[in-house]
Amino acid sequence: MSIQEKEDFAVEYPEHGLPPSSSSSAEHLDGDLLALDIRPAAERQLRAAITSARLKGLEQDLGFTDIQYQTVLAMLYVSYIPAQVPSKIILNRISRPSYYIAACVVCWGLTSALTGATNSYAGIVATRLFIGLPEAAFYPGGIYLLSRWYTKKELAFRTSIFSAGASISSACGSAILHRGFHHHRHRDSCGASPLQLRFHGYVLTPPSPSFLLPDHPHNTRWLSPAQRRLAQVRLAEDGGEADEDGDTDSVLKSLLMAIRDPKVLLFALMACCLLIGTGFANFFPMIAATLGFSTTMTLLLAAIPYVFATFLSCLNAWHADRMGERYFHITGSYGLVFFGYVLAVSTMSVPGRYIAMFLMTGGASGYTLISAWVATSIPRPPAKRSAAISIVNATGNVGTLVSSFVWKVQWGPEYHPSMFIGMAGLGLGVFLATVIRYLMARQNKILEREASVKPQIY
């Protein structure tokens, strides 16, 4: 914060004196904004549940073929992908995003519960299709809201914390529930796996009191006027202007601005390729099953790499913020995934495959930095940033949809074709990241010549 801004703050709010430093202000916000972390955690719980349910006989219980199971996985993204852009536009335009997110969580929970209540292929496909609509508000919406509160040098680490709950949920949720539902297999008419899905809808859907969620910095209810003012000043200093939309920034104009920006297109294609490269995430328990252990042990072994990935993600993001750099932290992460694939292709030994699983999950955690890179590369106006984040995340999840059909049962237990496809996706994604870095470096040099500003490559 500049000296003039500090003096203005002290004059406007004399009872508070000079404002605290930017870092201490961010730390004050952290605890309040962690309420957002619950939403992607619950979302990932359900995705992990339907994957682990396959190990416990989902296909046998409901009479699915392999292609039908893959279709069930893919149907979520059929609605999830197109719903993201309008969802983020709504989030940016309404004055109380907390109400919107809370309502989406309730709808998501009810629909998730219905997933376990179905006992037919058509029923579970229909519920998976509808789950994607409210779920579109969670992850990209959370990233956008974080970008409304944190500066460039704070955003990556907060994004990793925001995603940490999802990683832990993906790791531990199904493993914890497995033994508790094992005895229901012969008592429930739909089998144990649908019962588990019902449990995720009823119990693991968090309560959604809107007063725990943040709105925008200028109108969040649980902040004092001085705190709201400080939050706005911090972002204005970081971006060189107020983090507000102009009077002429309509929804259509902001969307067109994002679409016409070549960086957004490149980010979107990069995210798509990298998510194809990490498509193993939706099939991780099946990959862990190739180690040859019991179902319970398989789920426990699948959990540990995700715990490792959570800590690695936070450490990588913290260092990225400290260094003010994104490219090498992202490409380095996906380099781990690539080497994990190489190791997994090279051996079927239990130690070798398990080490490969650590490399694959640890490197895939680099995706959280992509969202932060997009948010800091397109700082203003907020409406364009919102559209850009949703476009990148939506297009990226096309890669997840495609990868639903890449990990075929008949390619197991080696899954070599799946891994070769993953390596190709990673290679193309890293190439596109390199192109983005080159374009941004050239843009910064132009700005430096024209305005004598210090370049920053995020």
TrEMBL record:
Residues 23-445 form the Major facilitator superfamily (MFS) profile domain. It is a multi-pass membrane protein. The keyword Transmembrane helix applies. Its main location: membrane. InterPro entries: MFS (IPR011701), MFS_dom (IPR020846), MFS_trans_sf (IPR036259). PANTHER family: PERMEASE-RELATED, TRANSPORTER, PUTATIVE (AFU_ORTHOLOGUE AFUA_6G08340)-RELATED. This is MFS general substrate transporter. It comes from Polyporus arcularius HHB13444.
